[in-house]
Amino acid sequence: MGHLSSMFNGLARSFSIRKGKSIGNGDGREAAEAMAKEAKKNDLILRSSGFVSVDGSKNFASVFSKRGEKGVNQDSFIVWEEFGCQEDMMFCGIFDGHGPWGHVVAKKVREWMPSSLLCHWQETLAQTSLDPDIDLESDKKHQRFNMWKHSYIKTCAAVDQELEQHRKIDTFHSGTTASTIVRQGEFIFVANVGDSRAVLAATSDDGDLVPVQLTVDFKPNLPEECERILQCKGRVFCLEDEPRVHRIWLPDEESPGLAMSRAFGDYCIKDFGLVSVPEVTQRHITSKDQFVVLATDGVWDVISNQEAVQIVSSTADRAKAAKRLVESAAHAWKRKRKGIAMDDISAICLFLQSSPHTQEISHVGTPK
Fold this sequence. Notes:
Blueprint: H1 2-19, H2 25-41, E1 45-46, E2 50-52, E3 60-66, E4 75-81, E5 89-98, H3 102-130, H4 140-165, E6 175-176, E7 178-184, E8 187-193, E9 197-203, E10 209-213, H5 223-231, E11 235-238, E12 246-249, E13 256-258, E14 264-265, E15 279-284, E16 289-295, H6 297-300, H7 305-313, H8 321-336, E17 345-351, E18 364-365
Antiparallel strand pairs: 1-4, 2-3, 2-18, 3-17, 4-5, 5-6, 5-7, 6-14, 7-8, 8-15, 9-10, 9-16, 11-12, 12-13, 16-17
């Protein structure tokens, strides 16, 4: 079974060493959470504005967040290097909360999602490795993607259910989006719930740097999204003072008016078309793929994909790339959205190719 088999064996050792038990359904979550604690202790997890680079890693991630003009910053994010104790894996996630408890919901999903994903991926990997009907060697790329997609779908369902059952958080009128990336060797797996966005910067054949949008902005007016909402008796329309902003509404109330069609939480509208099912895609990284920008809609509302790629690529110091992008978006809000309160703005810039200038840089973080 080659690489996948050795990966499973290595992950199994990681789980059993840390917990002193065999890996199984009962132990997986605890082991994953133990890994998260150890990674945080070893400065492999970044949860505040700054940057992370680990010796020998191909990854370099720059992160920055700026509070908007609507109160507390409801954006949250995480970068986890050596995800699951695998040297060739990394997890990046950005979460945009909304509603009275949105900032709490975003942080909870940030806390739960990586560990839950690791647990479900471990279980899926174990089942796949032991299935005699699956030939892992015949189509590694297809099997690898199926495992991550299956793991992500189970994870999002589990996280949403856990939120609903949490007694100390009001998630009836609050929720969060979630856009995440797992880098595994030369592949990236992208899972998106909501309207944050991932954009890849790739070098074209003529040498120009061009944007490739990796995710769909799940807005209520997208044909398939709108059809699902209407079939569930929800409504989709714009307010008079926001003629271009489509929102989801309850059948008989002008509430809650969500501007996205997928999210965690928001249980007041979950029976009327809102879902937390992720769209999962993969991409094989080549030497032409330079970096990925993962950002909340506070960036994309005022900055185009091409502008974002240009801003990041023209920043000489990779560690300052996310900050420059966020500050550029803040200036664009003042210029393009006069009279409208600026949204929270957050971005992760994940560089895919090693740079000689960053080989000696280690983790640095500053609180929001």
